[in-house]
Amino acid sequence: MIDRFKLEEDVSRILDVSDMIDDLMYIMYDREYPASVDDTMNMIIGIKSTLTARHSRLYDTMEILIKDGVITNKQTTGIQCKQKISKD
User: Fold this and answer.
1) Among 34, 37, 39, 51, which has the minimal tally of Cβ within 10 Å of its Cβ?
2) H/E element, 2
3) What H or E segment, with its residue span, contains residue 52?
4) Most distant CA pair in the chain: distance in Å?
């Protein structure tokens, strides 16, 4: 089922790029035998491909949520706070 939680999951997966970059830096600089240029480029191509696929999935999820009316461009008005805040 596609819902707002699926959208949140897809957005979070886009942000995993930090872990991928950490892995890339490890094979380039922290290993006893650093990766070759070819290995490094293959990893960069893989990261790029993964991010492209994740972006596509995120976009598809948003399209479904918009089509199903879960996400709209209507603004909510008249929201009231149910808890009164004390000024003590």
Assistant:
1) 37
2) none
3) helix 37-67
4) 65
Given a contact cutoff of 8 angstroms between Cβ atoms, the answer to whether 54 and 14 are in contact is: yes
pLDDT tens readout for residues 45-73: 999 999 999 999 999 998 998 888 888 87
pLDDT digits (tens, 9 = 90+) for 24-37: 999 999 999 999 99
Report the distance separating Cα 4 and Cα 11, nearest Å.
11
The type of residue at 80 is Q
d(CA 58, CA 69): 17
Which of 55, 47, 65, 76 is CA-nearest to residue 6? Answer: 65
Size (the chain), residues = 88
How many Cα atoms sit within 13 Å of 61 on the Cβ side? 18
- Rounded Cα–Cα distance for residues 13 and 50 (Å): 10
Joined tokens for residue 19: 């872990």
Indicate the pTM of the whole model: 0.69
